Amino acid sequence: MATEFVPVKDDDQIEQLAALADAIWHEYWPDIISKEQTDYMVEKYQSVEAITDQLANQNYEYFFINNGETNVGFFGLQPDADNDKLFLSKLYVAKDYRGQGYSSDVFTFLENLCQERGLDAIWLTVNKNNRKAIDVYKIKGFETVRKQTKDIGEGFSMDDYVMEKRI
């Protein structure tokens, strides 16, 4: 069955997204960052309150990645029309569904979305120690454009590469 991208619009979907994000982040991130930082980041960026604010006030769009039966992941994006770019804020696929082409489907969707909206590039940030994701992004045509360290509060920081793909 074809991959579907279901826009997150209502409170029930936001609650489902927050629960899915919590499960995936706690499965994925502890190998790269501490459990304490994972807990903090889930609350700060992927709680019901955070997602609601991002959708209502920060021009974010979220989509479930659905295989026709199940939401197998999600992604969040933020158009940056001032710079003719699309910010891919989040892309996560549940462990049992990784390696099945869902990320490739997302990138095809995002490239088409950029063309429809007249945007010239997709950019993202990725933790410098997240080798699996960095390798996928490189295969998909992303290049590292700079490094950045961002203080996110509570003594935590994000140590990332900024990567970009021209469309």
Overview of the structural elements:
Strands 1-2-3-4-5-7-6 form a seven-stranded mixed β-sheet, with helices on both faces. The relative contact order is 0.14. It is built from five helices and seven strands; from the N terminus they run E-H-H-H-E-E-E-H-E-H-E-E. The longest helix has 18 residues, at about 10-30. The model has no long low-confidence stretch (mean pLDDT about 95). Helix 1 (about 10-30) runs antiparallel to helix 2 and helix 2 (about 35-45) crosses helix 3. It is of the alpha+beta class. The two termini are about 25 Å apart. It has a single domain (about 5-165), classed as Gcn5-related N-acetyltransferase (GNAT) (Aminopeptidase, 3-Layer(aba) Sandwich), CATH 3.40.630.30.
Task: Record the SSE blueprint.
Elements: E1 4-7, H1 11-28, H2 35-46, H3 48-57, E2 61-66, E3 71-80, E4 85-93, H4 102-117, E5 121-127, H5 131-139, E6 143-153, E7 156-166
Parallel strand pairs: 4-5
Antiparallel strand pairs: 1-2, 2-3, 3-4, 5-7, 6-7
Helix pairs in contact: 1-2, 2-3
